[in-house]
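Q: Sequence in, structure out?
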Amino acid sequence: MKVSDYVVSFLKNQGISSIFEMSGGMITHLLDSLYRDGGIRIVSIHHEQAAAFAADAYGRITGLPGVAMATSGPGATNLLTGIGSSYFDSSPTVFITGQVNRNEIKGDRPIRQLGFQETDIVSIVRPITKAAWQASTPEEVPELLRKAFSVATTNRPGPVLIDIPMDVQKADISIPQNIQSEAQQARKNIIDKGYLDNLFSTLQKARRPLILVGGGIRSSLATDLFKTFVNKIEVPVVYSLMGVDVLSYDNPLRVGMIGSYGNRWANLTIAKSDILLVLGSRLDVRQTGSQTDAFRKDKIIFHVDCEEGETNNRIKGCNVLISDLREFLDTTIDYIGEKKFSYDASWMQEINALKVTWPDTRELENVKGINPNVFMHKLSHYSKDSSAYVSDVGQHQMWAAQSLEIGSEQRFLTSGGMGSMGFGLPAGIGACFALEKKPVIVIAGDGGFQSNIQELQTVVRNNLPLKIVILNNGCHGMVRQFQESLFEGRYQSTLWGYSAPDFAAIAKAYGIQSKTISQNEQVEEGLEWLWQDPTKPTLLQVQIDTFANAYPKINFGKPNTEMEPYRK
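A: Exactly. Output:
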């Protein structure tokens, strides 16, 4: 069997239904094998970065590795931002790059390059992958593929890259007897009963217990177990940006998002808590603020994570358990059994009172025109048929995370650790394919949308039911907000020297129906129009005030209880 044919048969046997790629000379054998086999959808993207983002989203939705392919040289290096995003956000992905023929690889020669477009992509990506290999012989390919899928999905998920020279791709190999991936055994930890005894005896004494969840709940495929766990112990839950969709908006135990742009009431809640159970969150600076002592105060913190290096890192003195979250939750649910837990009812009443006192819709109550937080609530009401919300990076990302009313079967995807503008549209494409072309909402700002605007053609060519909402403030809003606070309003390169086109006109040029709204009284009509045909792509441009800020916001050097704008 030809190696490229084997690669396709292996991927198909793993359940991969879509592959994201941009063509190039060094992957033509792979593309031809995919075409001739016909069992996997080939999604041709217009930039390799977009292919990587699409694979990231596909992996998060399905739990299978999202697969992206690119040619050597610029094709491979264009994948880097998406590879890094997968690494930081723990998304299972496998990247396959073509390489020049083995006799054109420079090896140890004291030269920069031998073959045309030859680039040592394996060395380049090693710091941002779980593993990266180059196939030096055709016979290595089956084992490398097996290892890649195992490594990408076990323990903390993440990206793996395989670089395959062109002459290896076209070589013949004997077909292995078993081409299924032999899943690498996940790290097993015996959950210490003493840890659980300590945790639950401490919770029983707590007046203000709280759970903080992060992206680890989703990446460990433990969401359903977590919901069962929370229903048993009935402790309120706050979440990080990567945990927005763990509990639905209408769940009575869901409090809100914490962090630099978190809901004001949620940051006040975490400050008031006396016991904090952290599950799958690394407590980075965007969650805690720079004042770690103020975040910690005198509360008792239990921290469960699959990586020891992520614990007792910035926040010291936590009671740590190193464990896969599925294993921890499964064991803990059995431990709880029929036990009942009760807490002071005034704690939940106090949290609900904070929500009433500091609603998200009042943070920008004096904004001119359309209030972004109010808009997100209304978008949610009209988008019950959406399977996922995918947000790009910027102020709109914060407004979406603060105010979207996520349903129990809906997902929220965004670029967290990398925080890359341009994530939204290609990730929406990847999510839509993973969800078998169910409607997906893409929320973007004007700056980020221009980073991968070319993928509108991918949407049109595949007739994807993406509902694209662009909050257009005519600037790079988040950095402009920094400049307002730190540089006396010198808006170089965010407002001065920056411009945005009419996205509605661009969408029409691509053949996508579009509409623009700019006034409050147009919002309801615009959202009804957006969903007039759930099966077709549409684009709604929402003009908002250039100087609308993402509030509330923790300023650097301040504790998470002190958020701009400062209010008593």
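The first strand starts at residue 18 and ends at 21.
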